[in-house]
Amino acid sequence: MTVRVLVVDDQEIVRAGFSALLDGQPDLEVVGQASNGAEAVELADRLVPDVILMDVRMPVLDGLAATRQILAGVAPGETPRVIMLTTFDLDEYVYDALRAGASGFLLKHSSPDELTAAVRVVAAGDALLAPSITRRLVEDFAKVQPVLPATAGGLTPRETDVLRLIARGQSNREIAATLVLAEQTVKTHVSRILTKLDLRDRAQAVVYAYEAGVVAPGPRR
């Protein structure tokens, strides 16, 4: 199945480069390009892409505002899914974008393999949480966010354990090894967590875990 991609960036050379790279993959197709957030909102509604590569800082309407508009009313599990593009690894807007429903972020200087892999990962319903840089970003910005009372939204103790490990950036396989569970069992727990908490994906689960006090920023514990 071909993944339909919308590329959004105010620099033409960046849009062209990303589009050429993605169009060169047999399972990826760039269905549109936008130079600002307002164009992105219009094209996302008209083209209904599977994945949107969204620059953070743009004229007319920035990537964060555009992401909020595009994802407003989109149910968990539905497309499009947004990958934020940023030049800086600790961009304050990225944290807000995760809260708005973005599925993760990618640095603009990422390698071609990292870019294509990111699109495939997000299209499959996962989030870009594996790199340590993502964990650092979430932890750093969680420190300045108001922490809610420690609660797990009606999750079972085992689901809370899984949520805590998701927040630490572990994959389903790693969680299965840590908790001595079958990987399919972990997948079931993750699905139930997202449903109970009304979250789009693992990216929002990470943000929720920090804000709800399920896991604390800083050293692992």
TrEMBL record:
Coiled-coil segments: none
Pfam families: GerE, Response_reg
CDD domains hit by this protein: LuxR_C_like, REC_NarL-like
GO molecular function: DNA binding
HTH luxR-type domain segment(s): 148-213
GO biological process: phosphorelay signal transduction system; regulation of DNA-templated transcription
PROSITE patterns registered for this protein in UniProt: HTH_LUXR_1 (PS00622), HTH_LUXR_2 (PS50043), RESPONSE_REGULATORY (PS50110)
Keyword Transcription regulation in record: yes
Residues the record lists as 4-aspartylphosphate modifications: D55
Matches recorded under InterPro entries: CheY-like_superfamily, NreC/VraR/RcsB-like_REC, Sig_transdc_resp-reg_C-effctor, Sig_transdc_resp-reg_receiver, Tscrpt_reg_LuxR_C, WalR-like
Domain Response regulatory: 4-123
Keywords associated with the record: DNA-binding, Phosphoprotein, Transcription, Transcription regulation
Name under which the protein is recorded: LuxR family two component transcriptional regulator
The species this protein was found in: Kribbella voronezhensis
